[in-house]
Write a structure and sequence with these properties.
single chain, about 220 residues, alpha/beta, 5 strands
């Protein structure tokens, strides 16, 4: 007698939204609750930006940054290196460049394949996951919050490594990035037509987490 193989088709949960909206926090909470692997796609771009800055590359030098993206290992960089205004600006600029995006897109799409027979869910967090990377994702969440609320949250994060960080400059940076991300021609920041919209301007991260978890559970996978 041979044992029957149990095939688990991993369900993809796509979480999109602008900077500082709480995507990473929500994704990590869901990952822990659902025992699901999570990929922070924004962290990939931050790692590329960080390495490009270390190598003193200009953001317009697309070919050299593409090579960095093809060989990037996100695990070798600390949060202190990846989360600051300089990285915010640099990663936003290079994320709209097609060669760099293409260099990372295969990595993002191959991630769930590693767990298709072992995990029920796989979480991918970013800005264009539900529209470009996984347009057929099983569950799509688009998170939003006002720039002021996001700036306050980001300030708390940045203050851990930069005590002199100011709310006004962080909010200005967030607004500028929103405009760039939403107006770019390649994979603009927009909610997928079939996504669930979650505006947490007036809700805590915990409340948002419970709301999104309720959506996932309603699918009864």
């Amino acid at each position: 007698l041979t044992k029957e193989k149990i095939i688990i088709m991993t369900k993809i949960i796509a979480i999109d939204g602008p900077a500082g909206v709480g995507k990473s926090t929500i994704a990590n909470k869901l990952s822990k609750y659902l025992d699901a692997p999570v990929l922070m796609s924004g962290k990939l771009y931050r790692a590329v930006a960080c390495e490009a800055i270390i190598q003193k590359k200009n953001p317009t030098n697309i070919k050299s940054i593409e090579i960095i993206a093809q060989n990037i290992d996100v695990n070798i960089y600390s949060d202190e290196q990846l989360y600051n205004d300089q990285i915010d600006q640099f990663s936003s600029k290079i994320s709209s460049k097609k060669p760099i995006r293409q260099a990372l897109i295969n990595l993002q799409r191959s991630f769930p394949k590693n767990f298709r027979k072992s995990k029920k869910f796989c979480i991918i967090e970013g800005r264009d996951i539900g529209t470009v990377i996984f347009p057929k994702a099983d569950i799509k969440i688009f998170m939003w919050a006002s720039s002021e609320v996001r700036a306050i949250r980001r300030l708390e994060q940045v203050k851990k490594v930069n005590k002199k960080a100011k709310l006004t400059s962080i909010q200005k940076s967030i607004i500028e990035r929103d405009l760039r991300d939403m107006s770019r021609k390649l994979a603009p920041l927009i909610p997928a037509a079939d996504s669930y919209l979650c505006d947490n301007s007036n809700y805590s991260i915990e409340q948002s987490f419970k709301t999104i978890l309720k959506i996932i559970k309603s699918k009864k996978y």
